[in-house]
Every structure is written in C-alpha cells, then in structure tokens.
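Sequence, please.
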C-alpha cells in the first residue's frame, strides 16, 4: 500500500511539472483536469486503507484532499469569471444595443447595480453567456466617458485586474472621435498553469459613447506578430470573448446610465455557479469600481474649483 501511495504522489508531482511545460508551450490548462482526477482518486480510498498506510491520519488526509478539490474548482471558476469581465469585443459590426432586459426604475435611480444573465445559442457542447450590468452614475456622459475609455488606468481601481496596456492605438483622421486599440490585459488570480495575459481588439466611438471589444484569436496574433506587432496569445480554453458597453443620458444629461454587456464562449458547458459568480461578486465589483471612480473624480474637481 505504501508503494501505491508513493506512485500517486509521484504522478501528482509529475502533473505539476508537465503542467508547467504545457502552459509554456501550448497555453493550456487541461492538466488541471488530470490533477483533479488524481486528487479525487486519492480521496476515494476507504479510511481503513489510509489508516494502514499513514497510521491513523486518514481523516487529516481526506480533509486535505477534499479541500484541494474545492480549491481547484473555485480557482477555475474564478478564472473564467474574471477573464469574462476583463475581456471583450465585437463579433460583428452591429451596434449591439438590442438588450432584452427590463429595468427596475426605482433600483436604477437609487444608483444600485442591476445584473442579468442571458443564454445565447451556440454550436456544439460549449456554453455562451451574456452577462449584463446596468448602473446609474451621478455624472455627465463626457465625465463617465473619460474614465471608461482610459483602459490603461483600469488596473488602478478594477478588482482582479493587474493592468491593461495599450500595445497599439490607431486614430482615424476622417473620424478623430473613433479609434481602435490592441490592449494587453493581465488578471490577478492564483490559478496554476494558466496564462493570465490576453489581448483584446477594442473599438472606441466617442460620438456614440460606445465601446466594443474582442479577444484576438491565435491565428490573427501570429499574423500580426509577423508584421512586427508583438501581441500576447490567450488561453485556448476560452473559445471567444466579445462584448460592448455604452452610455445613455438621464435626468436631462445630468446623470448617465452605464450598460456593460460582455459575452464569453468557452469549450466546456458553463455551470450555474459561474453564472451566479458573474452576476454577483465580479460584476458588482467592476461596475461599482467604475461608478466610484467617476463620482470621486467629479468630487475632487469640485473641491479644487472651490
């Protein structure tokens, strides 16, 4: 039995090493599934087996391995959630403002967040979800726009995001208020063997107060790299990410309604626990961070003017 224990321990260590290699070469996190399987097998042994192997410490081992399984599942769920909210794009050139939601006006005017989750049609067994957040901000559209279009500053106040860094920005001379950017992002989450950086292709339309973004796929990154533009590839677990945000005036332009609607499509079904996490903790943190940033900046400007 001790020999069997040593074999399992060796396989677990091998998974860590192989996982690191896979991460560096192929940007995959499938090795996590192998680790979860091994830990699950370890947990499945009856208590009497562990008692013979470890001399009465079966309860401690079972508790530890159960904790490991829950931790790995939580990290994967959190990774998907933060990538979803930290990324975005546009799959087509449509404006995207056809959101089928019904807002509670009392909640809206109170300044509290309203969130919704929509299931979209997709091919295959994967999952595609649109998470929608709507919140009122005590500022004009221009004041809100100054904050939401400055992605390079997001790392200073958006929870779970280490940084956004503009790699290239293109301003169109015929439409100065319209520009496109390739943006690299880095999420702060302790998930092993997972590439935490990704690249987005974002379009900013100031005249419409509209932003749309898209995850840059691997083939396009390779093509752009050959042209001399250094872009970071994203995890292959995420099949596609797209989304948009826009502003609408309220109270004769004195206030602004912020709509935020990212979409994620991954290669595995999206569990309900991820939906709850997206529409709850993560969405709340992001939307309230934007609201607080805008309103606090407005207060600081008012104080300085006085």
């Amino acid at each position: 039995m001790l020999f069997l224990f040593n074999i399992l321990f060796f396989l677990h260590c091998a998974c860590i090493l192989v996982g690191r290699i896979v991460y560096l070469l192929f940007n995959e996190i499938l090795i996590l599934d192998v680790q979860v399987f091994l830990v699950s097998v370890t947990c499945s042994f009856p208590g009497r087996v562990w008692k013979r192997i470890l001399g009465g410490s079966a309860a401690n081992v079972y508790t530890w391995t159960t904790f490991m399984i829950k931790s790995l599942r939580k990290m994967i769920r959190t990774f998907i959630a933060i990538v979803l909210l930290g990324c975005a794009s546009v799959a087509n050139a449509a404006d995207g403002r056809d959101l089928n939601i019904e807002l509670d006006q009392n909640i809206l005017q109170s300044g509290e967040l309203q969130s919704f989750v929509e299931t979209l049609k997709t091919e295959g067994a994967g999952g595609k979800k649109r998470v929608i957040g709507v919140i009122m901000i005590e500022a004009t559209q221009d004041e809100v726009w100054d904050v939401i279009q400055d992605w390079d500053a997001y790392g200073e106040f958006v929870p779970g995001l280490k940084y956004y860094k503009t790699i290239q920005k293109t301003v169109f001379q015929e439409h100065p208020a319209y520009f496109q950017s390739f943006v690299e992002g880095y999420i702060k989450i302790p998930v092993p063997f997972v590439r935490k950086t990704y690249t987005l292709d974002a379009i900013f339309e100031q005249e419409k107060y509209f932003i749309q973004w898209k995850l840059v796929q691997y083939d396009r990154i390779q093509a752009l790299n050959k042209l001399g533009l250094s872009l970071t590839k994203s995890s292959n677990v995420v099949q596609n990410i797209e989304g948009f945000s826009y502003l609408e005036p309220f109270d004769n332009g004195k206030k602004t309604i912020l709509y935020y609607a990212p979409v994620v499509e991954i290669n595995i079904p999206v569990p309900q626990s991820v939906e709850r996490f997206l529409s709850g903790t993560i969405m709340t943190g992001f939307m309230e961070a934007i609201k607080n940033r805008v309103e606090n900046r407005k207060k600081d400007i008012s104080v300085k003017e006085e």
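Residues 173 and 256 are 28 Å apart (CA to CA).
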